[in-house]
Fold this sequence. Notes:
GO terms for molecular function: methyltransferase activity. The protein is α/β, with parallel strands linked by helices. It has helices at residues 14-23, 29-37, 56-60, 73-82, 122-131, 150-157, 163-172, 189-199, 202-210, and strands spanning 44-48, 65-70, 89-93, 106-112, 132-143, 176-185, 216-227.
Amino acid sequence: MTAPIPSPNIWHWPDVYEVENRAQDADGAVFAVLRRVADWAGRDVLDLGCGAGFHLPVFAARARSVVGVEPHPPLVDRARQRTAGHDAVTVLAGSAERIPLPADSVDLVHARTAYFFGAGCGPGITESMRVLRPGGVLVVVDLDATVGPYGEWMRADLPHYDPAGVESFFAAQGFELSRVRTRWEFDSREALRAVLGIEFSGKIAQRAYDQTPGLALEVGYRIHTRRAPVGLLY
Length: 234
């Protein structure tokens, strides 16, 4: 098993990433789509690459059970502290390529901006499909670099990143695609600057800050979904 690739943001600046999580998707657009494509009410959820567990209580409010899996030990500890009062939530150390759950044990695998970035993530897809029950859904939520202004800054910082190629990869793996436009809303310009500073290189972060006149910015997401088959396939 290969070692997990360190996250360039939350592993190094978890407190700033907490600010980012609070700012993201201020209107709940992503969760609205998730409820439509894979409603988890009364079901068992796996949040893969859960980080400090920010989304675990959101799922726990409606799910039967929630498991967070995270490879970075300090974040595992944070996620456990965050969910200490939620009896239905369990946080485990593990990775996308080796999920510490039995086969056919969950109804939804949710992965948001973690591991599943296109070619090379095949082992994680296979492992996620293993733990899904028939009819369950793997949902991969990632930033849409075709949507400005955030996507323009991403492409400037990552000139070799190919959004069309990533989308083609997921399509070839049998995923359906939904696009969502969201609004990030910050409490202060200082919070905005700090978050941009952990997401982009210095020059691009300064450009992004200068091009954001207030406290909000538009950010696009791609939501890739793949459903586990029901019954026998011939």
